[in-house]
């Protein structure tokens, strides 16, 4: 996490604009005085501490979400937010396919409220693996899951009932989502009975399918321009949205109280 953080902090202090986001010395909201970053050793870990504070406050460790997965997802969230593409709901959804399908590996998080809205099962593609997926593809008719960041689109009614379209944001990894009809929908095979009978959830044709009884809840929570991140370390994955310098700039610029709470500011 240390890479590029030093450059970001110097930019924050000098008030130079980075990628369209301005940073400046600000006034303390209570003391009505200007404050500055104290020293370089503090600033190296500021963004990491910011993420850690959110992670701990939502108790994501207790529901099985790995910190590094959350870190990647949140970094992507801020990168995509910088492009003005997101809704004001501040919802971040993570499907962690480093976990087996019997685990509740879908996490819907309200970042503003610092709340876990829902933690539940989510299916992966039938050609991605058995209980734990290990193969991912962006190819049409591959019946696999695809890695990366998605922007949720419009709600529609299809063969699975009320469903939610997705736009893949990572070229080469998931940008064929629309053409492949990769959507969020309810499925009867996402349930405890499937786990009891098969030793795993049923599998989709590549869609992040959820339990039928929870489909409307999931769709209502994440619809209309929010981020879904599908994670796995089973295959190499890179993304332009994992720029930590940009993410740190946006996160800390809009949460400057955080630094003072950690006594990192005068």
Written as H for each helix and E for each strand, in order along the chain, the element string is HEEHHHEEEEEHEEHEHEHH
Gyration radius (Cα, Å) is: 20 Å
Major sheet = 7 strands, mixed
> Cα distance, first to last residue?
24 Å
Number of E strands: 11
- Estimate the strand proportion: 15-25%
Helix/strand-derived category reads: alpha+beta
Helical element count?
Answer: 9
Strand order of the largest sheet: 5-4-3-11-6-7-8
Helix content bin: 25-40%
| Uncertain ranges | 1-44, 262-266
Map the helices and strands.
Elements: H1 5-14, E1 26-27, E2 34-35, H2 40-44, H3 46-57, H4 67-81, E3 91-96, E4 106-110, E5 115-120, E6 148-158, E7 161-168, H5 177-180, E8 183-184, E9 186-187, H6 192-198, E10 210-211, H7 215-222, E11 227-231, H8 244-253, H9 256-261
Parallel strand pairs: 3-11, 9-10
Antiparallel strand pairs: 1-2, 3-4, 4-5, 6-7, 6-11, 7-8
Question: Can you walk me through this structure?
Answer:
Helix content is 29%, strand content 19%. It contains nine helices and eleven strands. The strands form three sheets. A seven-stranded mixed β-sheet has the order 5-4-3-11-6-7-8. Strands 1-2 form a two-stranded antiparallel ribbon. A two-stranded parallel ribbon has the order 9-10. The N terminus and C terminus are likely disordered. InterPro entries: YkuD_2 (IPR032676). It holds the Pfam family YkuD_2. It comes from Pedobacter mendelii. This is Murein L,D-transpeptidase catalytic domain family protein.
